[in-house]
Each structure stands twice: as structure tokens, then as C-alpha cells.
Amino acid sequence: MRSGEWNARDGASETGVGSPRTVLGRYLAVLNAFDPGTARIALAQLTVRTGLPKSTVHPLCAELVGEGLLERDEEGMYALGIRLFELGELVPRHRTLSSVALPIMEDLREATRQRVHLAVLDGIDVVYVGILGAGVIDVASRVGGRFPAHATGVGKAILAYSSAATVKARIEAGLPAVTSRTIATADGLIGELRKIRSVGMALDLGESHLGVACVAAPVFGADRRIRAGLSITGPAASIDPGVLGPAVRTAAFTLTRTLRDAGL
Amino acid sequence: MRSGEWNARDGASETGVGSPRTVLGRYLAVLNAFDPGTARIALAQLTVRTGLPKSTVHPLCAELVGEGLLERDEEGMYALGIRLFELGELVPRHRTLSSVALPIMEDLREATRQRVHLAVLDGIDVVYVGILGAGVIDVASRVGGRFPAHATGVGKAILAYSSAATVKARIEAGLPAVTSRTIATADGLIGELRKIRSVGMALDLGESHLGVACVAAPVFGADRRIRAGLSITGPAASIDPGVLGPAVRTAAFTLTRTLRDAGL
Predict the structure, then answer these.
(1) Interface of A with B in 140-199 (CB under 8 A)
(2) Per the structure, how many domains does chain A have?
(3) What does the pLDDT average to over B198-204?
(4) Which residues in chain B touch residue A110, judged by CB atoms under 8 angstroms apart?
(5) CA-based nearest residue in chain B for residue A34
């Protein structure tokens, strides 16, 4: 795993740990055994990671290989299969947004030369659905990666325009201090979200990674509800919110308008 | 579906059609009911698309929603869930390659101002794992999209360096004429692949979309086997292979070297 990556196992949606009882749970226990730091797993290790006996795991794997959800290499190691990637690319909360957003993100990337992030909220975390400017800065964000919403610019931009119930769920799940600068109290977060609404953008000043700063703005769907967060991220010294704020807000307005015009 | 998109149902990996007999097959029948043109499906339509009775489909959907693989909106329509996107982003044949390739693709995009494609072979088709330059030209390629390998620049660049068994599998599955210019005979394809090996790059002159041209080069993994195809695509009039060939080959060499240095 790249340093600083937030593991989905720490988050809300982990399903495959322990000894799963449903049939679907058993298939998912095998798929969930893989993580960003573990691309290939041997059968013996899969039995450990799933908590299922080898006599159960082996036929599950054979079925998953048969359907292209797993691949087995010449050394007998298992990896997630390309069919899973194809299915994942059809997920509308990612695909509709990303396909409309990509040209706008490319413009923002070209105008600012910083890294551009697009993320959606899933429960209490953000999931990154698009990233451009890979070489700019060595932070661990990756497409498909998950991060606690309160500790990121995109997450705070989304939470500021989310329902009270959504904000409450984040607070009740805890506000882990990802860095020493993360806003880790309920009062602090509620005040911060009020401030974000008053200026129309969110700042992340070392809250997700020390030394890294981010300016983020909210994106709304055709139903006028909050849909995503768009941000510019770079080394703290190179991020001037007075300069980059108008750029990221312009792009977020453009994306919102484009989604509305397309009825998406 | 966007015009010209090749549907996975026409390809090799379709599993959900008919009345699936295995448990995994039934879950996949539900997930495979979605396609690029069908983001949201009502329960009644799912029973038609899966060939399963409503009394079976309903509990399958409830389980899939519980695991985040499906999402159900306020109108009761189902869509593929964000958890599926997260899993798909962990697929190493996509992720490892894309994360290493993205900065190089951004450079190629900036230097040429054309659309840049990165694809891998899956069976007899290519699957696009990365695309930049979304606004350049209105062709239907999309990340996660599938296309017959013999009818694309990236696919021919990969086939030219693949095993004889792989080329044979493509020929035996048929060589559909996607356009009037597609190379649709076995002899034609074998001669074309020989030519590609002699010059180190593949051209697509209206073979995937009339009026669209493409210059592609092969990318090799650390094991020295063919790993992917990298290409530049644009309106036929703007693609000069003499000019763009060296650019795409340079980027493909760089990507090959980067993969080798990283042992990937």
C-alpha cells in the first residue's frame, strides 16, 4: 500500500471479514481479500484472509475464475479479473459524472498545472472517481480510493451541502485525526461547514496530508442536490486559495451546468 | 448506448443471458443486466433481462444492495453500486498499468493534442483501461469499453506481439467487419500483423470508425511479454503517421522501460 493510503478496511463498507454466512458474502470475502497493497494472493493465504476452509475457497475461486472476476496466473496466484473492472466502469455514480467531468478536469489541470481530484460521497467516506496530474505531488490518492470525508477538501465541500443526517452519520462514526491538522471535533466540523457554505469553497490545509493543500468546490446534479466535490491539490507552498479558488469554482460551476443541461 | 459502441454481449465474456444455473451465475445475471445504455433498471425489467422469476430476482437484489454492489434509488430503480467501482479499480491488469501510464499519457496528450488510448487484451477483445483527450473527437471509446481486437490500432499492436494461439483464437471467433475498412480475412490480418512487427507500430485507417485514424505501439511488461497497446486517435485528416508515429512509439518505449524498472 502506498504510504498514507486510507484502507477501506478502516472505513464503513467492509464486508468480507470474519466467517461470512451468506453465499454472496462468501464470494465477496474472496474478492475483498485483495487490497491496494495486495494484488496477487495464493490459495493458502486466501483461506487465512477469508476465514474460510480451503475446501470452500478453492471451488469459490474456480467459479470466480470461470466468470472472469478472478484471474489465475501460471504460478497459481489469484488476482482480481478484468471483468470486474468492466463492471465497475459501468457504475453510473462514477461513469456518468466522470465522462462529463473529464474534459472540464483536463482544462482545469492545464490552466493550473496542479493535481485535479473528483470525488463522490459514499456513506461517511469520499471515493475518488477521477484524478489528473499524476506526477504533480506524491500523495496517495488514487481512482477508486476511499478517504474519511471530514479530512479532505472534496469531502468537506460535499458535507457542507449534504443533509444534516449525513453530517450526523460522519460525526457519529468518529472524526479520526488523519493528521495533526484534521478537524477532529463535531463543533469544529460544524463551524467549518458553515464557513464553506458562506464562501462556496473548502480548503484543506494539511488536513489529509501534512504539507499538502487543496481548494475544493461543490458540484450539483440536475436534481440540484450535491453530487460531487472537485478540487485542486498541490504542495502547500504552491496553493494560493485566492488564485486557485476562482479556477476550481469556475470548473465546478461549469460541471454543474453541464450536468443540468444533460439532465444528469 | 453511444453510437458505434461495441456491446460486450456481442463479445466473448457474456455470462448472464438465458437462465443461469449456478448461484454466482444468478448474481452475475443481475449485474450483467446493466450496460452502457442502461444505467437504471426497474425490478420488472430485471426479471425480463435475467430470465429469472421476480421471486428470485427480488431477494438477489436485496442482497446485492446490502453489499453495496447495487444501489436502489427513491423511485425503486436499481443501478450498479459504487462498491463495484472500488473493486474494479483494484484489478491489477488495469490499475498497475494505468497508474504507471497516466503521467506518460498526459505528456503524449499535451504534445500531440489528440486523444490517447491505453488498452489491454482480454480474450479476443481489447478493453480500454485509460483514455485522455475526451473532447477531441466523437468516437465511442470509453474506459472499461470493449472492442474486437483485430479492428483497432491498439488491438492490432497487441496481436502482432501475441502468441500464435491468441491470434488463432481471434481468427476462429470470426473477424467482424466493424466498418467497410476493417481487415476481415485471416490472410489479411496475418499479413497486417507481420507488417506491424516490421515497423514497430500499427495504423488504423477507418477500421474501427470511418473517418477516424489511429497510430498505436506495443507496450511490454517486465517479463518482456506484450502487455498493452498505446495509441493516438483523431480525425483521419489530422493523423499523420510519419509525425505521430515517433511520438506514440517514444511514449510506448518509456512506458515499457518504466514497467521494467519497477518490475511490473
Answers:
(1) 142-146
(2) 2
(3) 97
(4) 110
(5) B90
Residue B71 contacts A, CB cutoff 8 Å: yes
Q: For B243-261, write each residue's pLDDT tens digit.
A: 999 999 999 999 999 999 9
Among A88, A119, A138, residue at a domain's last position: A88
Per-residue pLDDT tens digits for B22-72: 889 999 999 999 998 899 999 999 999 999 999 999 999 999 999 999 999
Query: Chain A contacts of B91, Cβ < 8 Å?
Result: 79-82, 84-85, 88
Residues A52 and A159 in one domain: no
Inside any domain, residue B1 = no
Residue numbers in A near B28 (CB within 8 A): 67
Nearest to A90 among B95, B103, B144 (CB): B144
Q: Which residue of B has its CA nearest to A61?
A: B24
What is the ipTM, given to two decimal places? 0.85
Interchain CB contact of B263 with A (< 8 Å):
no
Structural domain of A246: 92-261
Regarding whether B76 and B151 lie in a shared domain, the answer is: no
CATH number where B16 lies: 1.10.10.10
Q: What's the pTM? A: 0.84
Any B CB within 8 A of A134 CB? yes
Looking at the complex, does the CB of residue B7 fall below 8 Å from at least one CB of chain A? no
What's the per-residue H, E or C state across chain B? CCCCCCCHHHCCCCCCCCCCCCHHHHHHHHHCCCECCECCECHHHHHHHHCCCHHHHHHHHHHHHHCCCEEECCCCCEEECHHHHHHHCCCHHHHHHHHHHHHHHHHHHHHHCCEEEEEEEECCEEEEEEEECCCCCCCCCCCCCEEEHHHCHHHHHHHCCCCHHHHHHHHHCCCCCCCCCCCCCHHHHHHHHHHHHHHCCEEEECCCCCCEEEEEEEEECCCCCEEEEEEEEEEHHHCCHHHHHHHHHHHHHHHHHHHHHCCC
Chain A residue with CA closest to B134: the answer is A103
B27 and B155 part of one domain: no
Mutate to test the interface with A, among B71, B75, B85, B142 (most CBs of A within 10 A): B85
Could you give the CA distance from residue B191 to residue A120 in angstroms, rounded to a whole number? 48
B119: closest chain A residue by CA: A82
Give, as one character, the DSSP assignment of residue A36: T
**Measured in whole angstroms, how far is the alpha carbon of residue A257 from the centre of its chain?**
23
Mean pLDDT of B137-153: 88
- The domain boundary, picked from A64, A88, A112, lies at A88
- Any B CB within 8 A of A261 CB: no
B125 and B160 together in one domain: yes
